[in-house]
Amino acid sequence: MTLAVSPLGREALDGPGAHPALVEATLKDIVRVNALLGGRAAAAFGLDRLLDGATPASPRLRLLDVGAGSGDLARYLVGRAAQRSVALAPVIIERHPVAAGLCRRAGLATAVGDGGQLPLADRSVDIVLASQLLHHLDRRSAVALLRELDRVARLGVVVADLRRHPVAALGIWLASYPLGLHPVTRQDGVTSVRRGFTRHELEQLLREAGVTGAVFRRPGYRLVAVWRAAGVGHADG
User: Fold this and answer.
1) N or C, which terminus of the chain has less Cβ within 10 Å?
2) Residue 3 is assigned to a structural domain of this protein
3) Angle in degrees, 0-180, between the axes of helices 183-195 and 20-36, rounded to the nearest 10
């Protein structure tokens, strides 16, 4: 299915209609926010949970990043995995053409596509990441995305997103000024938090999708859901 956008608010990255220069500016801001306010650390936490105790068939693993933005997290996780003597080969699926172009310019293997219809066979990649994508979707599409991520993962899945909280909304608004974020990024950041989840809500989405995962609260008002593919074992410690 084609994924549908959340009815709550509107963000520049919701669809392809925004001006390319605005999208590029927003994505560059997100790179800084990820680095400084917990997005990068949340994705790394999820990767570590998957790799802890796992015995991959090969020291070289394929990482699929769905809705990768400019690809900053995929590039960061390559270095993170290398510290564990694991070589990650990232592949990007991104439906926004401007974002896909940025990923290609960064040297990442990239295809334009929709997360609700991944052009991949079952269990065809090792690790699947979706960071700050789920909150962009309506409930039906969020569940469909989770099922697709689970379908293609051979080792496991990491879903990182925002924890809805008034302090988080105020925090991104205030932090946007010293960080020099674009005004649209500032407003979109608040909308993103409003679209975010409580831990219970994210756990409920996992149940609706039929996956058994653990949801962790992480610094920066982040949530990270982690699960291993069928037959691999649990990632809840």
Assistant:
1) C
2) no
3) 60
What is the tens place of the pLDDT at every residue in 59-98?
799 999 999 999 999 999 999 999 999 999 999 999 999 9
Domain contains 1: no
Alpha-carbon distance of 55 to 57, in angstroms, equals: 6
Q: Of 132, 139, 149, whose CA–CA distance to 211 is shortest?
A: 149
Q: With 0-12 CB in 10 A as exposed, 13-18 as middle and 19+ as buried, what is 79?
A: exposed
Q: Is residue 6 domain-resident? A: no
CA-closest candidate to residue 49, choices 17, 74, 27, 81: 81
HSE-up (13 A, CA, CB side) for residue 233 = 11
Query: CA quadruple 49, 53, 129, 117: dihedral positive or negative?
Result: negative
pTM (2 decimals)?
0.93
User: Is 13 domain-assigned?
Assistant: no
> What is the β-pairing status of strands 125-131 and 60-66?
parallel
Question: Collapsing DSSP states into helix, strand and coil, what is residue 191?
Answer: helix
CATH of the domain at 30: 3.40.50.150
